[in-house]
Amino acid sequence: MNTTKKGVYLAPWEKRFDKILNPFEEFIHRQTTSGFLLMGTAILALFLANSSFSEVYLHILHTPILVGVGSWSVEMSLHHWINDGLMALFFFVVGLELKREILVGELSKLRNAMLPISAAIGGMVVPALIYYMINPDGDAANGWGIPMATDIAFALGALALLANRVPKALITFLVALAIVDDLGAVLVIALFYTETIAFTPLLIAGLMFIVLLAFNMAGIRKTLPYFLVAVALWYSLLLSGIHPTLAGILGAMSVPAIPKYDPERFSSHVKGLMNKFDNSHHQGQSIMNNDELSSVVHKLEYSIDSVGVPLQRLEHAWHMPVAYLIIPIFALANAGIPMSFGSLGDTIAHPVMIGVSLGLILGKFIGITGISWLVLKLGIAELPKDTRFTQIAGVSLLAGIGFTMSIFVAQLGFSHNDELLLMAKTGILAASILSGLAGFIWLYLVSSSKQDK
Length: 453
Known about the structure:
A hairpin with a 2-residue loop joins strand 1 and strand 2. 68% of the residues lie in helices and 3% in strands. The chain has helices at residues 23-49, 54-61, 78-104, 110-134, 152-160, 168-192, 199-217, 223-240, 246-254, 263-280, 291-307, 310-334, 344-349, 351-377, 389-398, 403-413, 418-446, and strands at 64-69, 72-77. A two-stranded antiparallel sheet has the order 1-2. The chain contains 17 helices and two strands. It has two domains: 31-193 and 243-258 and 309-446, Na+/H+ antiporter like domain (Na+/H+ antiporter like fold, Up-down Bundle); 263-306, no CATH class. The longest helix is centred in the C-terminal third of the chain and has 29 residues, at 418-446.
């Protein structure tokens, strides 16, 4: 037994994992760690796609997987299960983050929200325009949504390396910008990357969403009913032609964000339970032999659940598997770009490659920096605390790291054109590397090592 004080048991590794972080610090920690893990899996995917394992790698991705019960079944390749199934959980977490930010975060107060919202809009519109100017027609034009996205995990990972030089408010600004950016990407996917719509499944999906909202209005806080209906919503969207990952966003919007007990009611109730606990406890007796003690503990557990917010609880529960498992799996399945140095010149000169790269590098910088300057000049918004405008410009370069969401949109835009998809992925990879390096160097030069955080 490993103990640090009387009556406390600690497993051998428990102490090092027992550090308490506030929710925002925990969010940042997981996003930055996820960014480095994402980088590792992307490098692994590139290695697999350009090695003697490439055929095995592709064969595994195209392996059909059938999920069925009785006569009902869904069969897709492993690659599609990852992009259409697992990524729904990624969008679920994105939806939870967005809802939290709107209710209590950086987006809850209009004046604070104006700068990241305006910057995100500029950072979506300008890259799309740059891409469309270079690829105005043909199949290539379908990729205009690719450079609109920002990869929050990678961008935060790069910014975390400068944690002792930049203010915390700048990190908060990047988080808010990236979340608004994700919402924009979701709307673009829903409105512009849907080829055909089957209205009966779409109607059923609408009914499923109404059921989820009804659960919320009825005060249901258990997660199982939401999960079961959300799965039905996902399947209905899959049949409708609208990308099924949107079920994640819709499911997140229905999750309750108000606790059953307020803090005062919780405190009073728990004090009464603790008095009962103390009165029922007998020295040396295990809780397993005391039914009354066990009953009090169960009531305490229910009370803790009631004062907690389901939205926050689910975000906490799903952030780790999404950040450390789902996103790296997505990168492993989608970042495998076959490189041919013999045709490198043709690749660099390809309009899709140029459009994606310039959209992410130049478009994000012009869009975010330009709109931020404008709204600050007009007095519509204000700079975050202890932050300089030159640091906002540095963040606009980091926002050019498109990776996860950009690849996701590229898969939708060029699903039937492997050559253009390859050009788009190559552009995303090149732009993400250059944007990350440029943003890091810029922020290092304009920020003081003694910057208050």
